[in-house]
Fold this sequence. Notes:
Helices cover 22% and strands 25% of the residues. The chain is an alpha+beta fold.
Amino acid sequence: GDSASVLVPNGISGSPLSYVPSDTFTLDGKQPGDTDVRTGGDTSPNGVPKAEEFPAVRIGRYELRAEIAQGGMGVVYEAYDTHLDRVVALKLIRSGEFASGDELERFQTEAKAAARLDHPGIVPVYEIGREGRQSFLAMAYVDGESLWQRVSISPLAPRDAAKIMRDVGEAVQHAHDRGIIHRDLKPQNIL
Length: 191
């Protein structure tokens, strides 16, 4: 479409920051054929409930609405920020209150690196915090499909593909100029 490509801060690293992150905000928790819970479809094979069936869960000021994605380190939810009256993407460490010191450090390092980036093609970080023993990362919520989802429907027209590559290249260059490397660049991380 006409919207600009958005690179999600997933798999980024930078000097002096160094980490092996998972999925700050990515839609790659789904395999082809799984249902995106944001559309209210059937439960996916990994047991994610339909959006309208999602249990009422609250992390601090955030009300979880639906699971968006899962990765090696975290789970990302569509959430509602009750203080600022807006929808956000909220990443939680998968191991929750049982997260090791190393996991918490990686999570915070990832958030700090992503927060250093201010570019229209990179999802902004709003807040990193902790509620009880659960760490979280709040980011802008980007509605729509990933490049992976888009190309699984049909190939892109050459001009559209070139525009996406230009937009992604500009976002990646912005990160590189600030000493940050995206180490998990893939179609699932391009919205």
